[in-house]
Design a protein that fits this description.
76 residues; five-stranded antiparallel sheet; 1 helix
Length: 76
């Protein structure tokens, strides 16, 4: 699991079938179905923080990532 933020994060070069629009805490986000250098799967979610405008990336895979997505909240 990796989480970081920046003013603008680079978008992975993926085909459209590997990209989904989702929502995190009622904010628009993009889910990228990517892979690690060793070929293992990795999902990356990019969402803009509505409070400070920074982009946040959350990367991981499987049940742990699903738990993070389902419980993610911005502190307002």
């Amino acid at each position: 699991m990796v989480v970081t933020c920046a003013s603008e994060l680079p978008e992975p070069s993926l085909s459209p079938d590997k990209i989904e629009s989702i929502s995190l805490d009622n904010e628009k986000a993009i889910l990228y179905h990517d892979q690690n250098p060793d070929g293992s799967p990795r999902d990356e979610i990019v969402v803009k923080n509505p409070i400070n405008g920074l982009e946040i990336i959350i990367a991981g895979y499987g049940e742990t990532l699903q738990q993070v997505i389902s419980s993610f909240r911005f502190i307002r």
